[in-house]
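Need residues for this backbone.
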């Protein structure tokens, strides 16, 4: 009796066979999408067409490094017409989930980019509300929350760092949670990064949620003013020195825009 060919033997278990590397799929660029997005889309009332457009914008930003794409190109990627995409984008901007900002580079040139920071914050908050325990159940302690966001158990040193934030530095628990939120949005899950955020907030006397909201608003205004002043200086310099070559825009990854807003010199 002849042995069966291994090619005809189905894989064991219920899991599908792994994709062969020869097809090139595993060598393509991947797009990181927080699971919270999928859990909170419905809570915000986003429609399927809204989700498709938002995911394509995310994919273009991450995989191609482009911060803006026209409604016509978005429609081609989403299988929609340019008018349908424009209608979706009008609805998203009306709710505040999407913003189109104009960036002024040091050399005076201008470019548009999609800003999803408000959507990130809203989805994060909606997902958090879905995870809120019942009124008679205790809320999750900071260590448990950090482990859930980091996706792994914390080390003894990391647990001690949280204890020091609470006991030695006297940071309120809500402020530590907000710093963790900033790190999640910036895709910078680092205790050093979170500690630097907390120190910066303490230095600016952020003591209440209202203080934090005001600080964020003022900081964004200051950054816009700095960009405009830098662009003005660059134009004046080129006007006075025509032989100077125009500097290229700084290449920054838009996925970490929250990090660059906090630490512009990084």
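Answer:
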């Amino acid at each position: 009796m002849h042995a069966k060919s291994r090619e005809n033997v189905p894989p064991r278990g219920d899991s599908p066979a792994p994709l062969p590397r020869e097809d090139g799929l595993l060598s393509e660029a991947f797009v990181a999408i927080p699971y919270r997005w999928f859990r909170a889309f419905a809570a915000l009332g986003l429609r399927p067409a809204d989700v498709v457009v938002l995911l394509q914008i995310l994919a273009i930003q991450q995989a191609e490094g482009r911060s803006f794409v026209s409604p016509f190109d978005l429609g081609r990627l989403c299988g929609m017409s340019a008018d349908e995409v424009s209608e979706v984008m009008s609805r998203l901007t009306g709710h505040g989930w999407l913003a189109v900002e104009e960036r002024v580079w040091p050399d005076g040139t201008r470019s548009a980019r999609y800003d999803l920071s408000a959507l990130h914050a809203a989805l994060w908050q909606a997902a958090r509300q879905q995870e809120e325990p019942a009124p008679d159940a205790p809320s999750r302690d900071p260590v448990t929350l950090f482990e859930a966001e980091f996706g792994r158990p914390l080390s003894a040193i990391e647990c001690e760092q949280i204890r020091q934030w609470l006991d030695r530095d006297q940071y309120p628990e809500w402020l530590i949670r907000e710093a963790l939120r900033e790190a999640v949005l910036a895709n910078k899950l680092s205790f050093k990064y979170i500690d630097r955020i907390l120190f910066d907030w303490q230095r600016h006397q952020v003591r209440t949620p209202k203080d934090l909201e005001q600080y964020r608003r003022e900081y964004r205004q200051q950054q816009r003013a700095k960009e405009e002043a830098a662009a003005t200086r660059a134009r004046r310099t080129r006007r006075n020195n025509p032989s100077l070559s125009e500097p290229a825009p700084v290449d920054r990854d838009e996925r970490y825009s929250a990090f660059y807003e906090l630490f512009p010199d990084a």
